[in-house]
């Protein structure tokens, strides 16, 4: 009976979702399908030159062609796999690092909290984009370097939130009782703290993905992110920016994809917070 009740409750939640949430989930689903099945969905190859450079929107090519004659629609579809996939992996790394260090600071306190917090303060004092540009200029513009740099920088935000909510939960009675029972550090974190801070952390994951996604797009636009000929929404805007001078809206297509996915994720996160925060009651 319990699985049936859970299924009914889930159906009720989705049935009462606002139009903005449905819009966001639909866009995210389309992007996921496009990214996972890009070689099947895309009409042409990722780097295949299929026509004359700078063809306008419409006609044989739905979104036109880029500066060397590649199909923009196919590049956007492959870009969904590359940009969104790398952003998702980077977010997981950033979230894992920030979550573990934040919980350790909240539980251990004292010297561990001071040490970790001062390191985070130093990293947050430097503008993230400038710091990333500096590191990537010195180490090279490989995808691995970019993922590691962004993950470290974004983990500082996750650390601050995790530490704050972890400290609020860490002083409650059930945590103190677990300590008096002699439970280990990781047992307390897994069974007592994580279940009680899951909601704000889940919302933070969605927001952090948006920031990482925009960060990668910005680096690619500046030439230090995902490198050509790999399809990437940020680099596609940079490569085709000159076409605007000729009245071609081609660069607006990947820019619109970036904006659309960011807004959609925020719609879903807002709805999730509304459902879990108790505001609807």
Structure description:
This protein has a single domain, classed as MetI-like (MetI-like fold), CATH 1.10.3720. Helices cover 73% and strands 0% of the residues. It has helices spanning 2-15, 19-36, 38-41, 72-108, 110-125, 128-139, 143-170, 173-180, 185-221, 233-239, 252-276. Helix 7 packs antiparallel against helix 9 (185-221), helix 9 packs parallel to helix 10 and helix 10 (233-239) runs antiparallel to helix 11. The longest helix is centred in the first third of the chain and has 37 residues, at 72-108. The two termini are 25 Å apart. The relative contact order is 0.14. The mean pLDDT is 84.
In short:
With 281 residues, the chain is an all-alpha fold.
Tell me the CATH superfamily: MetI-like
Shape: globular
What is the CATH T-level topology? MetI-like fold
Radius of gyration: 22 Å
Structure class:
mainly alpha
* Number of domains as seen in the coordinates: 1
Named CATH architecture = Orthogonal Bundle
User: H/E series, N to C?
Assistant: HHHHHHHHHHH
What is the rounded distance between the termini?
25 Å
CATH class: Mainly Alpha
The oligomeric state is single chain
Indicate the percent of residues in helices.
Answer: over 70%
Sketch the major β-sheet. none
Average pLDDT number: 84
How is this fold's topology laid out?
Layout: H1 2-15, H2 19-36, H3 38-41, H4 72-108, H5 110-125, H6 128-139, H7 143-170, H8 173-180, H9 185-221, H10 233-239, H11 252-276
Question: Could you name the key traits of this structure?
Answer:
281 residues; mainly alpha; MetI-like fold; 0% strand
